[in-house]
Automatic annotation (TrEMBL):
ATP binds at G84, Q85, T86, G87, S88, G89, K90, T91. InterPro entries: Kinesin-like_fam, Kinesin_motor_CS, Kinesin_motor_dom, Kinesin_motor_dom_sf, P-loop_NTPase. One of its GO terms (cellular component) is microtubule. PROSITE patterns: KINESIN_MOTOR_1, KINESIN_MOTOR_2. SUPFAM superfamilies: P-loop containing nucleoside triphosphate hydrolases. Belongs to the TRAFAC class myosin-kinesin ATPase superfamily. Kinesin family. The keyword Signal does not apply. Keywords: ATP-binding, Microtubule, Motor protein, Nucleotide-binding. This is Kinesin-like protein.
Amino acid sequence: RVFCRVRPLLSDDVADTETKSVYFPTTTETLGRGIELLQHGQKHSFTFDKVFVPESSQEEVFVEVSQLVQSALDGYKVCIFAYGQTGSGKTHTMMGTPGNYDEKGLIPRSLEQIFESKQMLQNQGWKYEMQVSMLEIYNETIRDLLSTNRSGPPECGSKQHTIKHDANGNTHVSDLTIVDVRSSREVSYLLSRAAQSRYRRTLNLNDHSMDQQVQGVLNLIDLAGSERLSKSGSTGDRLKETQAINKSLSSLSDVIFALAKKEEHTLMVVNVSPAPSSINESLCSLRFAARVNACEIGTPRRQTSARQLDARFSYG
C-alpha cells in the first residue's frame, strides 16, 4: 500500500505564497485519498490508500501504520519506508523532532509500541532478549555505527561487512556490533549516539524466544532524497554520492515488483513538498508512487517455525 504525505509550506520555501500547486479533492470517492498537482495549467490527479494533508499530525500518521507494526510482532514480514525529494519531510515523518514529544516520528513511536507489547506479553509469561545493531550504507559501503574502532572516512571502515540472506528470506549483516537493550529509552540513546556520524542510519532489533515458534520482521527506512541528478547540482564527491543514491533508488521499483511474488506487508510513504518550486520533483515522486501502488502483493503469510523467535526491526 502507499500513503502520501504533504508537508506544510516552510518559511524558507522560495515561492510565491499566492500561488498554489497542490490540491485535495473532496468528492466522496477521493476524500482522504486523492491529491492533485497543478503544473502549467494542467491538472495531474492521483489516488492512494491514504493522503495526509499538511495539517496532519504525527499521531494521525502513526495511527494508520500501527497495525503494521503489530503485524511484525505477530509474525509477519513488514517494511515501511519514506520516499521523496530532499526537504519533502521524510526524516520528519520517520524520526520527528528531537525532544518534542508530540512531534515524534514513526520510528520512535513504533519502538514504544514494540516495548509496550513486550511488557504486556512478559506479564503473560513470555521471555524476551532484545538486541540492537546500527549501520548505514554510504556510497555502497556498509558502516557499523556502534563500533568503537571506527574512524576516518566512510570508505575506510575497519571491517568489511557483507549482506547475507538465509533460506527463510531473512537478511543478516556480518560482524556488526550488538548491544543488549531493555527499553525504548536505551534504543533512543543508541540512535542519538549513531547519529553523530550519520548520513543514513539503520537499526536492527533482534528479539529471541526459545518457546514461541514465530518470526517477524519490521523494516523502518528513511531513504535518501530522490531528486534527479540535474536538480541536485552536485559536483566532486557529492556527485559520486548522488550517483550512488540514484542507482539505488532506480532499483527500488524492481524490488517493489519482486515483492508482488512474495507474501509481505509493504507500506510506502511518499513525501511531497507543496512549494511551487518543487512541482517537477513532486510530480516525479507521485508518478513513481502511483506505479508502486498499482503493484499487487499476495496475501501475507505468518512466519512460523519450530525455531526461536527472531524478530528484526530495521531503520535506515
